[in-house]
Write a structure and sequence with these properties.
With about 350 residues, the protein is mainly alpha-helical. Helices cover about 65% and strands about 5% of the residues. About 30% of the residues are buried. InterPro entries: TPR-like_helical_dom_sf (IPR011990), TPR_rpt (IPR019734).
């Protein structure tokens, strides 16, 4: 309680969570922010917080800052940080592989795909060297007939690198190859990533698995195989709907991808339907000026007129078919027209 009882104060405990309702400017450069106090027991908020904790994790290490720079889009800072670390590290240090991985992600984000490929293959090579004392070779990791699940606990104890780290490298390489339009090779690496995730993840339905299904769907669409594309996108969507908060951007990205398949098939009504679902999620979960929102608006504006045209053509076709049916039912239909003269 305040010492002066005439004071009007509202006290909040440390860690309160507020929702930003509105931000408006006043004079002299002062801004007013309207906040709404949220309860930690709010179901949607609690679900989102639990997911964010699991996604971000509680452990941090020397490479976390470089990864954060990349996430924030501070690419130059990420590159500078990782390059300085590499000067101090040896190749048998796991952090070296992580540095090259981040450098690959940065190069990918900056559309420097050849450099991204070099960095990701370097990360893969370093991780394979670190994992060899346990498995001997990559064949022992990806061959079902050789690897025994009984050695997995031993692997986790003796090596900081797991087959899932190799899967991450395969996934990153596959994404770069898509941009380079080397689709068959991209599909090869994404399938290898999917195999490792299905084998070594603690449960079959995992968000990481949905990521690979999503990537494979993208490869198939690039290869004009719409049926295989939508099958994999649907698998990704099923997992994400089950494991993620309902307004998670990853769900929105899958809706958008499915919309793209329908647009490819010239089914503009379904395309617009899925684009709108993606838009609803993006608006609820991302800043107003986020690139995903800009992209999905462009998608809707492109498809909506085509959808209206398709509906008009369908209506005209149905009207024409009805006219044909009417003529067939009334072969002398003209005599029944109100303007026709009847014989006396």
């Amino acid at each position: 309680m305040p010492a002066n009882f005439n004071e009007q104060e509202v006290l909040f405990r440390y860690g309160c969570i507020f929702q930003i309702v509105n931000v408006e400017p006043l004079e002299n450069g002062i801004w007013v922010i309207h906040l709404f106090l949220r309860s930690e027991e709010d179901y949607s908020l609690k679900t989102l917080l639990n997911h964010m904790k699991s996604e971000l994790g509680v452990e941090t290490n020397i490479i976390s800052l470089g990864h954060l720079f990349w996430k924030m889009g501070a690419y130059d800072k990420a590159k500078t940080y990782c390059r300085r670390l590499l000067q101090e590290l040896t190749t048998d240090d796991l952090t070296s592989a992580q540095c090259y991985e981040i450098l690959g992600l940065v190069a990918y984000s900056q559309e420097e795909y050849q450099q991204a490929l070099i960095n990701h293959f370097t990360a893969l090579s370093l991780r394979l060297e670190l994992i060899k004392p346990i498995y001997g070779s990559i064949e022992l990791i990806i061959d079902d007939t050789i690897v025994d699940d009984a050695i997995l606990p031993k692997t986790r104890q003796l090596s900081e690198v797991s087959p899932l780290d190799i899967a991450a490298c395969f996934n990153n390489i596959g994404n770069v190859l898509i941009k380079k339009e080397e689709f068959e090779l991209a599909l090869f690496y994404h399938r290898k990533a999917l195999f490792l995730k299905q084998k070594y993840l603690t449960r079959e339905e995992h968000v990481d698995t949905s990521l690979t299904y999503h990537n494979i769907g993208g490869v198939y669409l690039s290869m004009d195989d719409a049926a295989s594309s939508i099958t994999n996108y649907q698998k990704a969507l099923d997992i994400r709907l089950k494991l993620l908060p309902i307004y998670h951007p990853l769900i929105g990205s899958t809706y958008r991808a499915i919309g793209q398949v329908h647009e490819f098939n010239k089914d503009y009504c379904q395309a617009c339907h899925y684009y709108r679902k993606a838009y609803k999620i993006y608006v609820a979960s991302l800043p107003k000026q986020h690139q995903n929102i800009i992209n999905i608006k462009t998608d809707i504006l492109r498809v909506y007129p085509l959808m209206r045209l398709m509906k008009l053509r369908k209506h005209l076709a149905e009207t024409k078919n009805f006219s044909y049916a009417l003529d067939a039912f009334f072969p002398t239909g003209k005599k029944y027209h109100r303007n026709d003269k009847t014989s006396s």
